[in-house]
Amino acid sequence: MRHRVAGYKLGRTTSHRIAMTRNMAASVIEHERIITTVQKAKAVKPFVEKLVTLSKEATQHNRRQAFSRLRNKEATIKLFDVLGPRFKDRPGGYCRIIKLSKRRLGDAGERAILEFVERTPKEEPVGAAEE
């Protein structure tokens, strides 16, 4: 029976799991898209979505709360300067998980893409815009 068992342990100690979650969340915020296993993506997605919800209102208190959870200054800055305003009108569901067909080499773990629903468009090179 699974009574009162919540959350993903991912076969790691508590400190390792917390550090991994913070690192993956910072990577998602920085790159806006990462490839990982399905289980890790499902564990990190709610963490990232709560941070984006915090960043929609850029108060000092929310910035400090986000930094205390992320522990990454650059990711916190991008979260409040770029992602918060982008998702201002969206009520939720900021991330998506897309399962990949090719399994991971080594342990054949299922892979997935964890990305934001709305992504920053790629900037064109300066020479291409002038032509």
Would you kindly provide a brief summary of this structure?
The chain is built from five helices and three strands. The chain is of the alpha+beta class and 131 residues long.
Describe it.
By secondary structure, the chain is of the alpha+beta class. Helix content is 50%, strand content 12%. The protein has a three-stranded antiparallel sheet with strand order 1-3-2, with helices on one face. α1 crosses α2, α2 crosses α4 and α3 crosses α4. It is globular and about 45 Å long. The mean pLDDT is 93.
Descriptors:
single chain, 131 residues, alpha+beta, 50s Ribosomal Protein L17, Chain: A, three-stranded antiparallel beta sheet, 3 strands
SSE diagram, text form:
Layout: H1 14-31, E1 33-37, H2 38-55, H3 60-70, H4 73-86, E2 95-99, E3 111-116, H5 126-130
